[in-house]
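Dear support,

I submitted the protein below through the web form. The confirmation email said the job was done, but the results page showed an empty box. After a refresh the structure appeared. I'm attaching both so you can tell me whether what I see now is the final result or a partial one.
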Amino acid sequence: MNPGNTRRVGRPRLSDELNPLVTLTAEERRSLFLEKAAELFEDQGYASTSIEDITECLGLSKGIFYYYWKSKKEILLEIHARAVGALNTQLDEVMRHISDPGQRVTKAIESHLNVVMRHRSLVAVLLGEAAFSEETIKERRAYTERIQHILEDAIQAGVIDPIYQPKILAFALLGLLNSVAQWYQADGPMPASEITAVYLRLAMQGCQKH
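What the results page shows now:
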């Protein structure tokens, strides 16, 4: 048997001309599945969404799903991982390029909102009630701690009022920013830049030292 022609038993050939995913890259295929699954998990709930629901919305057979994931739980975990990963990647850029404590707070807020609005469904699922893995819990906690440290630096620099406890302020700030995932629509009447400006003003005016 030619090893170059082997494939996993029971998995559909992606080269099939009837497969609408054939023109997409591997990453684009996974992202398409993840986005659609996240939308359904958000709208119907994780428990009420079946694998058939996901594939039918994409006009695909159920077998296509199993080319990428072993179970619905596996796709949920990847949604969680991608959402947290996107938040950390954006925050890494802020930490790498911004050293001023006050500007770091501003840019951290902007970067967080950027991820929420660009990946709204993924973030909404991350913030939902579906069961989290221990790894997801650790990653979410670590991200919150990163925001807390940024706020601590801003307090020490005299940018944020020292009456606030950094840990509580971090929870409050993330709660405000994450609320955007509950209603934001890319085709809504207010562009993302204006929404960011409103939330940035609310956040900074509420905690800045005057």
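Response: this is the final, complete result; the empty box was a page-load delay. The chain has two domains: 11-70, 77-207.
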